What does this fold into?
Amino acid sequence: MLPKTVPTAALLIIGNEILSGQTQDQNAHFLAQRLAVQGISLREYRTIPDDEEAIIEALNALRQKYTYVFTTGGIGPTHDDITVRAVARAFNRKIERNPKVEAAFISVYPDINSKDDPRLRMADMPEGAALIANSISTAPGFQVENVFVLAGVPDIMQGMFNNLVPQLQKGPLLFTRIVFCKIFESRIAIKLESIQNAYPDVEIGSYPSWKQEEEQGVKLVFKGFNAGEVEKAFEELIKYAHESAISTRTL
Amino acid sequence: MLPKTVPTAALLIIGNEILSGQTQDQNAHFLAQRLAVQGISLREYRTIPDDEEAIIEALNALRQKYTYVFTTGGIGPTHDDITVRAVARAFNRKIERNPKVEAAFISVYPDINSKDDPRLRMADMPEGAALIANSISTAPGFQVENVFVLAGVPDIMQGMFNNLVPQLQKGPLLFTRIVFCKIFESRIAIKLESIQNAYPDVEIGSYPSWKQEEEQGVKLVFKGFNAGEVEKAFEELIKYAHESAISTRTL
It folds into this structure.
């Protein structure tokens, strides 16, 4: 059970190129790792197409369920960048041109000589949105209530995420112990289950390694907010492994 | 608009280890690519924890919306493998031990001498499930109605998917043209938009490349079921690029 003090999160990865298999998403894994370090529990992520109705539906489902929602993708200057429109509709807000962002664009690109310049589309945001600084290019991300709208390009997204981290609510860190056992996981399943039953607040994961070129065995991961409980559950497993002459390697 | 003859799909990636950032999922990208080759349109994928209620909720939402649902993860012999139970509950079916799979396990592992052997848990399936052959290890995947339940270990999942491909309904293939333009995408946004408006059945995607070590510019992807339309839209862009002295490289 997740303690009530743990903030939760969902990701909404927006992009036809990922669903078509053309591009492998990198953003979810980065965000999963960084959220874990903040003590924020990532509960799900969804990858959906550049489709306005699909974005609105997912956004409204997720933002009511979790402390934070992070979106990636679809905030550029081209016709297929529809995330801003979808976010505005999901929150029932108008879109307005942000004067601060507009001024930044005009100062960086002095050749902008019309309000219709496509670069200025990236200054259009849902009204009342708070900016998220972009350390690489000019267009910022933005925040509306508990939704953080980030770029899809990994380098830019990562910079934006780093800039918004200070304002996130932090949670308690999970204490983790990991051991690799050189044995099929089925051979340790009954013992693991009895440890799991004895320590219900410790999350015990069992991940067999099956790749031909890798050592075969099982990686066991013990996690929990109570370090003492995790340690006790883990020690019970290690003791059993030694008694059973199972080769182990803590990771 | 997707023609009605195009089968659709969703993925349900099940695994705490992915949400915690411990493991980077490889299965979604593999399946996205393989489904595209079959003419099956992947419409979304969700990554969720090893949580029975979360699996049931997602499964019931997705299986009613799409032609096919593919799940990965959670079908091993340990306590944290709960996908079978969740699938059975989602379809309101009992779990039964499959005699064919049980016999296969006993023949491969002659030391199995009890019905309680954890390896035999992998012979437990929702009643009426059809088996999906496993080319690497003994435990098969299975199918219930339009839901295909696959292993989480990538090598095993891939073998299972290859074995089930012949029974999938195939759709028309998307015709694709790709060009890299050495220019910021905002500089081509207006032309792209006018081409998109002229060819509404062609999906035009614009993907800027921003990585420091890579050539900066934009990858433009034209896709559609009507090859002639895709070709015409693409040629219009190429013509514009040449007139505007934009350096291009078709990919």
